[in-house]
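pipeline/complex-builder :: batch 7 item 3
reading input block
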Amino acid sequence: MGKRKASVRSKMEPKKKVQKLATTFSCPFCNHADSVDCTIDLKLRIAEVACHVCKESYSTKAHELTEPIDVYSEWIDECEKVNVPLSDDHRDSSHDDNFV
Ligand SMILES: [Zn+2]
């Protein structure tokens, strides 16, 4: 008699990880959350992140594997480089031009 085979597979869709890559980030300059958008142009091989609040932007080279987060972190890196404050104990002043 009707052996009910467990054909009642509960509709468990294989969890497709909706891997929505984050493409908005918070701005390192104005600190607005999600104000930074990333665009990657693989034709021109340029990736750009820009804050629509304070209009800061940064662009870099892009390739197939470039992800928004990469561009963003690169930007952060750059910012940190640029913002390296004139720390007092930064003895290595190889270029102390008019330090007023
Ligand atoms: Zn900003």
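note: The first strand starts at residue 24 and ends at 25.
queue -> next item
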